[in-house]
Amino acid sequence: MARVLAIETSCDETAAAIVDDGHCVISDPVATQIDIHRKYGGVVPELASRNHIVDIVPVVQEALDQADTDWSEIDAIAVTRGPGLVGALLVGLQVAKSLAYAHNKPLVPVHHLAGHLHAVFLHRPGEPRPVGPNYPHVALAVSGGHTAVYYVEAPGRVIQIANTRDDAAGEAFDKVARMMGLGYPGGPIIERTARGGDDRAHRFTIPRFKSGALDFSFSGLKTAVLTKLKNYSGPTPLPEGQEEADLLASFQRSAVDQLVHRTVAAAKAHSVGDVVLAGGVACNGVLRDKMREALESDGVQLHVPRPRWCTDNAAMIAGSAGVEAGLRIGTGHTQEDRRMNAVASWRLDR
Ligand code: KG4
Ligand code: ZN
Prior knowledge:
By secondary structure, the chain is of the alpha/beta class. The protein is built from twelve helices and eleven strands. Strands 1, 2, 3, 4, 5 and 6 form a six-stranded mixed β-sheet that branches. A hairpin with a 4-residue loop joins β7 and β8. The longest helix has 29 residues. The chain is globular, with a radius of gyration of 20 Å. The relative contact order is 0.19. The site of zinc ion has 5 residues, from α4.
């Protein structure tokens, strides 16, 4: 059995977790910086780094306390090496390196998106192990920083089959919420405000690429919403009440339809029986429902992590480190671990 302690600081959540054998989550405290970034309408990188510095040591201690364990029982330390905000990544990496050195533990670097894709395998002690997706499968990683479809041949063997050509889907939710003065993060607020709205009130076209590529694009949709707002001539400066709900429901429908269309097409093209939906935007109930419906009608099963493990967390990082961590039990800290650097831009399949 490998017991891994992981640290995740790639964006605006300071997180640590202890996970056994790559799947059983013993503790996973998260210190969120949402309230700090809210007044700026998005993540301010410098503030993110500074607050990771303040929060990281208490959060790691909390992970140990909640798990009622200590360093003698930890087999390896995992850390998000990238991609992400470089200043934010460096805080987690330096703390992980120091702890690994001080306690003579192996240090296992993890790709943030590999973590998101792994979240579907996590469970709590005493709960049955989720019936994970079969290999090969298709995975959609959709968050504030990424929107990509992968063909996952085997654990750790991944090919990217589609990517966003501009904004990430979560970024589009955040920007539209900001344009409408709704606050940050936009995804959950838009989902809530759009309830009861007519999702056919406004028609937004879904971009298609001539080459037939399954790539995503969300900047046109964002601009289309902005144009609606500029041309709005109601009693208030911005749509309110039903009009607001209609606009947001139509925006959400268009974003969700694009995500579902590309993922279903990828699943068909690669003849897989399982699809994983992961990342912060996977919390969206409309996306979950529509994706499940569309895939099930093709006989494909959808796997989605629970919402806590869709948004950024360290349990997914500890879990993803599982096999490599297991192989390194007892090897202690190495010179290579000490030299490890953050990688702000890092493709999952390279
Ligand atoms: O995975 P995550 O926590 O961080 C990144 O790696 O980016 O994802 C955060 C993103 C934000 O853009 C947020 O607006 C979006 O996920 N999000 C949602 C929902 N909950 C979070 N988007 C749509 N609907 C939601 N319910
Ligand atoms: Zn993420």
